Amino acid sequence: MTTTAHRICPLCEACCGLELELDGDRVTSVRGHDADVLSRGFICPKGAALGELQDDPDRLRAPLVKRDGAFVEVSWDEAFAEIDRRLPPLIAQHGAASVAMVLGNPTAHKAGLLLYGARLTRAIGTPNVFSASTLDQMPKQLAAGWMFGHWLSVAVPDLDRTDLLVVLGANPVASNGSMWTVPDFKGKAKALRARGGQLIVIDPRRTETAAIADRHLTIRPGGDAFLLLAIANTLFAEGLVRLGRIEPHVAGLDDLRAAVEGFTPERVAARCGIAAEDIRALARQLATTERAALYGRIGTCTQEYGTLASWLVDVINALTGHLDVPGGAMFPKAAAFAANTLGAPGKGKGISVGRRRSRVSGAPEVFGELPITCLAEEIETPGDGQIRAAIVVAGNPVLSAPNGPRIAAALAKLELMISFDIYLNETSRHAHVILPAFNSLAEPHFDVAFPQLAWRNVARYSPALLAPPAGHPAEWEMLVRLIGIVRGKGAATDIAALDDELTADDVARTVGPAAPQLLAQVAHLRGPDRLFELALRGGPYGDLFGARAGGLTLDAVRAAPAGIDLGELAPRIPELLRTPSGKVELAPPPLVADVARARADLDRPVPPLVIIGRRHLRSNNSWMHNIPTLAAGKFRGALLVHPDDAARTGVRDGGRARVSRDGRAIDVTVEVTRDISPGVISLPHGWGHGQAGTRLAIAAERPGANLNAILDDTLRDPLSGNAVLGGVAVELAPL
Ligand SMILES: Nc1nc2c(c(=O)[nH]1)N[C@H]1C(S)=C(S)[C@@H](COP(=O)(O)OP(=O)(O)OC[C@H]3O[C@@H](n4cnc5c(=O)[nH]c(N)nc54)[C@H](O)[C@@H]3O)O[C@H]1N2
Ligand SMILES: Nc1nc2c(c(=O)[nH]1)N[C@H]1C(S)=C(S)[C@@H](COP(=O)(O)OP(=O)(O)OC[C@H]3O[C@@H](n4cnc5c(=O)[nH]c(N)nc54)[C@H](O)[C@@H]3O)O[C@H]1N2
Ligand code: SF4
Ligand SMILES: [Mo]
C-alpha cells in the first residue's frame, strides 16, 4: 500500500521538508514538500536519493564484530555483550581519559545522536572529546561566543530583505548554506537580484555561487582576515562607522579602532590579492547600502586566521549598522534548545575556553572539545591519559581530517574502537564493533541546532515513519545501552528505566525543585520525543507547561506536517546577549591580541601554488559516493588547475598528476579551467575510497584521492583549534 509522509531531510544544514511516497517500508519517491514553512518545496539531488540510501546493498543491516581480524555479523545482544566485556575493564584500569569520543557531522543532523551522544560523553567523563567542529565552524562559534556570550548566537543574513549580500568563502549554491539554514539559496539570491539588489562573491574560485553573482572578486586563500581588517580600517578612516540601533549595547569600539590601525587597503592588498581600490569600494558599498549583510563560511574558518576572520565578519556588519536589523545579519530565535533564549535575558556568564589543554600538543580546550587534529598523537603517545579506545559516532576522520593516513594507523592500534556507522568505510573498518542505524526515517526527528541558524523562525517535527526490524534499536537506544554499560549496569540495561533516570537528572539540573512537576507532564513520552516536548514547552514560544495558553507543545507541532511558521527574523539585541557586560563585545581581548599575529604576518611571501577544497551538490563530505544516481555522470573529484599553472607544471586536462607536500603525495586527475585563480588548485575532500577492508562497491569504482592525506595535522588556528584545510603550499607535477 502506498502512503504519503513528510520528513525533514537529514543530510545537510538546509533541513528541507520532504514529501515521501512509501510502499510499505520502501521509499518509492521523494519530492520537495511545497507547503513546508522553511523550504517551500525545495529539494536537491541528495534528498531525492534518500530511498537509494536505504536500499544500498552495501549498507550495514546488522552489527559487526571483528573476530580474528575479520568482521562477522552478530546479534544486537552479542554486540553489546562484546562491548561490555571490553569497555568497563579498560576504563577501570586506565581511567575515563583513555576513551575518546569522536563525533562526526551527521551527529548534528540526527537528534537521537546529538542529544544522547552528549549524554554518553558525560557518562564516560572523558576530557578527550573530538568532533568535526574543529574541521569546520569552531572559529565562528568562538567569535560569536566572545562577542555575544553564547557559541550558537550566530547572525545570519536576512536574505529576503537585503539589498546587498557579500559572500566570503562560501558556495551556498552547492552547499545549500552552512551556519545558515537557507534552503533554496539560489532562488532567494535570484529574487534579491530581481528586486535590484546585488550579490558579491569573494572566492579564489569562480564557484556556482559566483556564477550567479553580480560581481566575483578573487582572493588569495587565507587572505580574508587581512581584507576584513582593511575594510574595518577604511570604515574608521573615512568616517563611515554607523552602529545604528545596537549603538547603546556595544562595547569596545575604541579598542577595535586601535586594533585595525595600519591595516590600510594598500598595506593588505598583496597579502589578500585584492586591489586597494576594490577593498575601499567594498567598504563604502557596505557602509552606504541601507540593507546589507556580509556572510563568511568554510573558506573563512578553515584557515590560520579562522577566528579572527569570523569575528571581523560580524564586526563589519556591526560597524556598517547592519547587525540585528532587517535586511542585515540577524539572530534567529529558535523554538527549542537555544541557550540564548534561556535564563535571564540580556546578560550572562559569557563563555570560558582553555580550561584545560591537550596532553601532547597543549592545545586549549574549546567548548569542551580538543582539536580533532590532536586525535592521532593522543593515541600514539604513551603515558598517563593516553587514548586506548574510541567511540566514533557518524564520523570518518580518515578521510575528513588532516593527515588521514596517520589517523588510520593510530585507530588500528586502539585496544577497542566502536563505530556508530551505516557503512564499512575508511574509518569504521578499524573498529572492533560497528553499530549501524537502521534508517533515519525510523526515528523521530526535531532539528535541535539548525533553527538557531535558520533564515526564518519555524518549528517542525518529523515522526518516525518506519518500524525497524524486530530487535534493531534506534540510535538513541544504542547510546543509552552504552551508557548503561559505562555505568556498570551490564549489557542488558533496562533502556526505558535508564532513559527515565537520565532525563530526570537533566531536568533536575536545569529547573531544580520544579523537576518532578514537569516530568509528570511529559510522562507519556519517551526518548528524544520527551526531550523535544520539554524543550518546546519550556522554550520562547512554548506553553510553559500550562502557564501560557496557546503556546507550543510537541502535539501542536506534530499536528502541522508542514511545520509552524514563527515569522521572519526580528531584532534580538540586547535580549539575546549573554556576555557578562550585557554588551556586544566588539573587541574581545583574545581577538585583539591575535591581530598582532596577523600584523607580524603581513609580508609573508606568496607560494607559487596553494591548494584549497570545494564541495559539489551531489556529494556529501566523505560519504554518499556509493549512491548510484549521485555517483553517476562526470567524476567530481578532479583537481582544478588554471591554464597558466598547467602550462608551467606540464600537467594536462584529463591527465594524471601528483600533488605533494612535505614528502606526502596523492595522485589525481586534472581538469584545466579558468574558473580557478592562477596559483591556486582545488580538490574536494572526502575522496580516497577503495581502501582495503572497506565495503563501498560503487565508490570504489572511481575512488578519487584523499586531499587530507597531504594536509597537516600540525596546522591549526591557535584560538579555536580549527584545522587549516586550505591555502597551504603544494607541488604539482605530471605523472
Ligand atoms: N580538506 C578538507 N577536509 C574537510 C573539509 C574541507 O572543507 N576540506 N570539511 C570538513 C567539514 S566542514 C566537515 S563537517 C567534516 C565532515 O567529516 P565527518 O565528520 O567525518 O563526516 P562525514 O564525512 O560526513 O562522514 C559521516 C560518516 O557518518 C556515516 N553516517 C551517515 N549516515 C549515518 C547515520 O544515519 N548514522 C550513523 N551512525 N552514521 C552515519 C557515514 O557513513 C560516514 O562514515 O569534514 C571536514 N573535512
Ligand atoms: N552538496 C554538499 N553540500 C554540503 C556539504 C557537502 O559536502 N556537499 N557539506 C556540508 C558541510 S559539512 C558544510 S560545513 C557546508 C560548507 O558550506 P560552504 O561554506 O558553502 O562550503 P564550500 O562549498 O566548501 O565553500 C567554501 C568556499 O570557500 C572557498 N575558499 C577556499 N579557501 C578560501 C579562502 O581562504 N578564502 C575565501 N574567501 N574563500 C576560500 C572555496 O573556493 C569554496 O568555494 O556545506 C554543507 N553542505
Ligand atoms: S539541500 Fe538537499 S541534502 Fe540538503 S536538506 Fe535539502 S534536500 Fe536534503
Ligand atoms: Mo561541516
Q: Describe it for me?
A:
31% of the residues lie in helices and 16% in strands. It has 735 residues and is of the alpha/beta class. Among the domains are: 1-55, ADC-like domains (N-terminal domain of TfIIb, Single Sheet), CATH 2.20.25; 150-344 and 581-600, 3-Layer(aba) Sandwich (Dimethylsulfoxide Reductase, domain 2); 610-734, Barwin-like endoglucanases (Beta Barrel). The protein has a 7-stranded mixed sheet with strand order 5-4-17-16-15-6-7, covered by helices on one side. It has a 7-stranded mixed sheet with strand order 26-21-25-22-24-23-27. Strand 2 (17-23) and strand 3 (26-32) form a beta hairpin. Helix 5 crosses helix 14, helix 9 runs parallel beside helix 14 (306-319) and helix 11 (265-272) crosses helix 12. The radius of gyration is 25 Å and the shape is globular. The mean pLDDT is 97. The chain binds ligand MGD (2 copies), iron/sulfur cluster and molybdenum atom.
Identify the notable features of this structure and list them briefly.
single chain; 735 residues; alpha/beta; N-terminal domain of TfIIb; Dimethylsulfoxide Reductase, domain 2; Barwin-like endoglucanases; seven-stranded mixed beta sheet; 31% helix; globular; binds ligand MGD; binds iron/sulfur cluster; binds molybdenum atom
